[in-house]
Design a protein that fits this description.
2 copies of one chain form a homodimer. Chain A is α/β, with parallel strands linked by helices. Chain A has 5 helices and 11 strands, in the order ββααβαββαβαβββββ. Helices cover about 20% and strands about 35% of the residues of chain A.
Chain lengths: ~180, ~180
């Protein structure tokens, strides 16, 4: 059965973006050898992405080509009239937990929870998250959108893997302890 | 010259304590082999501790013996009448940046910044922090006192060391990039 994996970059102070959604600080870390921090390997196991509407619009605002070509992408929103505008991208506006359950029983590859904070809160609340891969950047941002906003359900995790890179980035992989 | 080191345990979601200051979740992580996560080694290099008044009172509230025996401890407070009640513990109520500068030029062993969030913010703002050792517990607490509260000065760090332990704890050591 596929896993639901939160795979996300965070600052040392747990921010996933500046308050205006910008992620310039991710790109400004010197990376002379063009490391991908395991992204290609991760992506090879993914069939589906899920993201919140705000995150979707942040990605659209980057002004780059749709980064999830070849994947089925789902945008969670309560707006039943919301229209997506990118390849293989669909709105999910009904019971998300039921949708994820259905997805897990009908697809084979893993499901990438892209974010943002509100959707992460929901997935934790409903115990829908199986794994987290946190890519920790060596920056204290000081201000911004929190990876883990307040009012989350308490949960325990098992450390599965650590990878560090010459640029100072650390990938921590955790599996949900049930 | 001694370094100022923030050495602190944090949850995966960047909390250092529950909202009421309690740290039961630190003690409830199974640790059958009694690992100290490098604490004794760290402590051997420390001569001085600095903590905020609220943190001091949280430590007093633990109802255990004073944990910093043998060290000079300083409690930062704007209350010039504040009275400390533990061994070798002194109030600092004047310019803390000047005090830290003086401490660095008159002592040899490193200075442990114990916390909490407000003092960490001040040390970052004034560029007083040389090193951070973050002990990351595999728990999402969901609610509590933030290690890095908002409105921090942005700063970049260099990853110096990673240690992981069988209990799922990871120690990340960073040095300030100036």
């Amino acid at each position: 059965m596929p896993k639901v994996i939160l795979y996300i970059a965070t600052s040392l102070d747990g921010k996933i973006a500046r308050s205006d959604g910008s992620v310039d600080w991710l790109e400004s870390l010197p990376n002379p050898n063009g490391l991908d921090y395991g992204y290609a390997e991760f992506l090879a196991g993914i069939g589906t992405t899920i993201m919140g509407r705000k995150t979707y619009e942040v990605v659209l605002g980057f002004g780059v080509d749709w980064p999830y070509v070849g994947l089925q992408s789902y945008v969670a929103t309560s707006d039943q009239a919301y229209v997506t505008s990118t390849p293989d991208t669909f709105r999910v506006s009904y019971d998300l937990a039921a949708f994820v359950g259905q997805l897990k029983s009908t697809t084979e590859k893993d499901i990438w929870l892209i974010g943002g904070g509100e959707l992460i809160r929901y997935f934790l609340e409903k115990d829908l998250l199986d794994e987290m891969i946190l890519t920790i950047f060596p920056t204290i941002l000081g201000e911004g959108i929190q990876l883990f906003p307040g009012h989350l359900k308490e949960s325990n995790w098992q450390l599965m893997d650590i990878k560090s890179f010459e640029t100072g980035i650390v990938n921590l992989t955790y599996q949900r302890l049930k």
